[in-house]
Amino acid sequence: MSTRTDEILTNDSHLIQSFANLDGLKQTNARTAIVSAKGGYVTDSEGNELIDGIGGLWCVNVGHRRKEIIDAITKQLNTLDYYSTFYNFTHPMAAKLSKKIADLAPGNLNRVHFGNSGSVANDSAVRMLHHYYNRLGKPHKKKIISRVGAYHGSTHLAMAMTTPAYSDGWDVTENLVHHLQSPYSYREAGDMNDEEFLNHLANNMIDKINELGPENIAAFIAEPIMGAGGIIVPPEGYHQKMREITDEYEIMYIADEVVTAFGRLGHMFASQDKYNMTPDIICTAKGLTSGYQPLSATIISDEIYDVISEPGAMFLHGMTYSGHPAASAAALANIDILEKEEIPKKVRKTGKLFENLLKGLTDLEIVGEVRGSHFMMGIEFVKNKETKETYSDDLAVGLKIASECQKRGLIARPLGNILILSPTLILNEGEIYRIEGILRESIIETTKKLKSMI
Predict the structure, then answer these.
(1) Per residue, what are the HEC states of 136-171?
(2) What is residue 34's predicted lDDT score, i.e. its pLDDT?
(3) 3-state secondary structure of 173
(4) Alpha-carbon distance values, 269 to 54, 109, 125, 285, 287 (Å)
(5) Could you report the per-residue pLDDT of 148-199, keeping only the tens digit for each?
(6) Which of 50, 55, 178, 338 is deepest in the core (most CB within 10 A)?
């Protein structure tokens, strides 16, 4: 361990890492300190260059250290470092960004509220809808329908909307959020084909609505593809079907595009362009600034805005950093890069290559399923392909494979028996083939080690 690494880890003993085994971190120095980054790569404190296979955390879409974004942030800080968007105040960057997002968003989603994280964006969506229904004289229309396997954030309300597995040992708001069956075909469909499974999921939604009463339900919230729940891809036509059901029962549809927006699936927004449905609200963050500044956006329809902006309605919601000037400047520069370099369009080609190459890993002994779309992929490992039997948690198969990947120059994200890949969107074909090669070698090596352990 270098002197620099030792110094970082000594200081790091005061940092509470997110989603970590804190006791494990106390017992070991098995941490990686990232000290610099450029393009699709990061460098650790030991001088190792690594492909950033998780894009920071689903977010560095245009790649690291883009001068255009850094310059835009610097220029803005030298002009207007900060001012709020409370009361009757605004500033050029937040105003310009809100118009840009409204221009890009589908349908009549023309009103934008800024926050500083995806969790806050999703919280804001629910708070606004609760206020909306209060204004309409429907104070009981408050419940939220989510899904097992969902991930909507880590604030108290967002965690309640997230799959119950993520709140083990933690408290969540009770009786506000109700979860549907996960659209996890590999584990949940059984002998049903895609059409039958889709109908089953639709009936599950209708049954839940009737159980709770549509007059008590404010919204259904869904990620186009479930991310931190394991890259769960619903059967074809799922989002259109759920949109039809929510329309029929007068329930709002919140699309959690915190991960999927701004190019990851080949479009600025996936809801309409990829899944042929327009929600009532889109929540986004991550790729909005490519992670260069913390910023999120809750994009609502004109219908919702018209009600919450009626005479006598105070909008009692907001954060100090809502629409921060530097964050807004970063987002505008980031979107400019996405548009000028046609990154979403390129992703429809390079992302498809990435998807198809990774799906080829199913020829390996312990790869049960590879799923996802474009630059949002998950690999599930199983002990037995025929029975889909999983490895026990104490074997930490995903972590073992991620460690082998890192030795070979790739950062991948373990999630139990699943490995997640969400790299920057600027990878070329050579880098994509290299990732596939590292994954293949790492899985093969881990398979050998597992056989010696079992």
Answers:
(1) CCCCCCCEEEEECCCCCCCCHHHHHHCCHHHHCCCC
(2) 97
(3) coil
(4) 20, 12, 17, 12, 11
(5) 999 999 999 999 999 999 998 999 888 999 999 999 999 999 999 999 999 9
(6) 55
Structure tokens at 136: 């309409």
Q: Per-residue confidence at 454, pLDDT binned at 50, 70, 90? A: low
Tokens in use for 174? Answer: 């009770």
The Cα 421–Cα 418 span in angstroms is 10
Residues 402-453 have pLDDT tens digits of 999 999 999 999 999 999 999 999 999 999 999 999 999 999 999 999 988 8
* Of 297, 132, 344, residue with least CA distance to 218: 132
- Rounded to whole angstroms, the Cα distance separating 286 from 114 reads 13
Nearest to 254 by CA among 396, 125, 352: 125
Q: For residue 334, which phi and psi values (nearest 5 degrees)?
A: -65, -45
Determine which helix (DSSP H) or strand (DSSP E) holds 35, and give its type and residue range.
strand 34-38
Q: What are phi and psi of 54, to 5 degrees?
A: -120, 10
Q: What is d(CA 411, CA 435) in angstroms, rounded to the nearest whole number?
A: 10
- Nearest to 300, CA basis, from 38, 121, 50: 121
CA angle 438, 442, 443 (to 5 degrees): 120
Note whether 415 and 47 are within 8 A (CB): no
Closest CA to 126 of 219, 191, 242, 33: 219
Phi-psi region of 321 (alpha: psi -120 to 50; beta: other; left: phi over 0): alpha
* Helices H / strands E in the chain, number of each: 16, 15
d(CA 190, CA 193): 8
Q: What is the mean pLDDT of the chain?
A: 96
Domains of the chain: 32-62+343-453 (3.90.1150.10), 69-340 (3.40.640.10)
Nearest to 256 by CA among 245, 240, 268, 269: 269
Structure tokens belonging to residue 319: 């954060």
What percentage of the chain carries pLDDT values higher than 90?
93
